[in-house]
Model the fold of this input.
Amino acid sequence: TKAFHMALDAHRGMRRKSGEPYIIHPIAVAIIVNREIGLGVKSIVAALLHDVVEDTDVTLDEIESAFGEKIASIIDGLTKISGVFDNKTSLQSENFRKILITLSEDVRVILIKLADRLHNMRTLGSMPRHKQIKISGETIYLFAPLAHRLGLYAIKTELEDLSLKYRYPKVFEEISGKIKDNE
Done:
């Protein structure tokens, strides 16, 4: 509850591209983290706060004071790894090194980042076409294989399906139609 209220206050007045209040995104990520990945309270708190330090005036010290060192560490990892995933250049060995270091520190950082990407993919329809192509390309080449390696097969499959939907909409519709015909 405390994390929800901090996120709600920090994101007050912010909106996503779809026009919905920004707080919907961290709530959705927290739900994915809990229901679809099966993580616990600390991960849910970190998911609710995952964009607070990066996108608002809330500091990591404030997070640590309110929620403790472990949650602050996860949030710090999410903030640092954002540059790895959101980089406009291709993922090179230095970026892979950063991912491996983050994984060795706390795998929950990567799991929350996957939940974040999954929700972003589920809501990608409100983005401009060029962003849909860019984000779905990153998803198919990085996030889906990462989900596969971590044993998150349902998430991997959904990321692949959503990536196909936005990268090749005609192919996606054709396949979807054939599946419906066979049901």
In short: The longest helix spans residues 129-149. The mean pLDDT is 90. The CA atoms of residues 10 and 93 lie 35 Å apart.
